[in-house]
Amino acid sequence: MSNFLNAIRHLIAIGDVRISEHGYDELSEDGLTVKELLEGIDEAQIVEEYPDYPKGRCILLLQNDKHGNPVHVLWGIP
Q: Residue ranges of the domains in the chain?
C-alpha cells in the first residue's frame, strides 16, 4: 500500500479536502458528486503515482461512482 495513498485517505477522513475549480467542472461534466468520490476512497486502486508533478505530488486512482462505474480520479497534496 502506498504511503501517499494512506496520507490522502487520512486527509479525507479528517475533512481536510479542497477541490479545484477544474475538478468541480470535471465532476459536473461527468455527473459525479464529491460525496461519492470521497466515500469510495477506501476501495480505490492505484493506477499511477506522480511524485515529481510540478504542482505537487499526486496519485491517479481508479474508483467507482455510486452506480459502480469506473472513474479515474487524480488526488494530490500541493
A: 3-76
Please tell me the distance from the alpha carbon of residue 48 to that of residue 45, in angstroms, as a whole number. 9
CA dihedral 28, 26, 29, 31 (to 10 degrees): -50
pTM for this prediction: 0.90
> Quick check: 23 and 76 in contact, CB under 8 A?
no
CB distance 46 to 27 below 8 Å: no
Q: What's 31's DSSP letter? A: T
Write the DSSP string, 32-60.
--HHHHHHTGGG-EEEEEETT-TTS-EEE
Give me the sheet containing 70-76, strands edge to edge. 45-50, 58-64, 70-76
pLDDT tens figures, 19-55: 999 999 999 999 999 999 999 999 999 999 999 999 8
